[in-house]
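Justification of computing resources. Each target in the renewal requires a structure prediction run like the one illustrated here; the chain below, 178 residues long, is used simply to show the kind of job we budget for.
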Amino acid sequence: GFIVTKIIRKVCKNIQRQKATRFFKKAQIFGGASMAFMHGAQDGQKFMGIFLLGICLANGNTGVTDFTIPFWLIILCSAVMTLGTSIGGYRIIKTVGTGMVKMEAYEGTAADLAGACCLFLSTTLGIPVSTTHTKTTAIMGVGSAKRLSNVNWKVVKDMVLAWVLTFPGCGLLGMLST
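Resulting structure tokens:
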């Protein structure tokens, strides 16, 4: 996010501010669509893998080496991701988008492009990463491109704490529920 923001500023330094803002408001659509596509490419694969593992284990197929992902599973994963994003997404977007860093249109585009590029690289290399973590750190980079104090580090601290506590918390709940 930091690097993309610096590049955009350098490339657009002689462009009239009003024209640049109009362009980047439209460019945010492309950036958002890129992030949505890469979200599906990265997180959708993880969901389908877990569901497919569950199907194989439920059917007693423990030694499967060749498999085909059923179309209904792709639709189910898409629906679950859509539902999850529509239920919890607004609050997360509001916290990250306005609570952590105040951004202009070009900065929003920079965050989307940086996040999508990192997700594309990770997906291409087969590295599973969190879309939320990737996008959030891209936004932190965008905020830091102006100055470090532009980022609300209290919000960042709270988010990182929630990220760190999620795995042990889920493990503890799983252990207590068995």
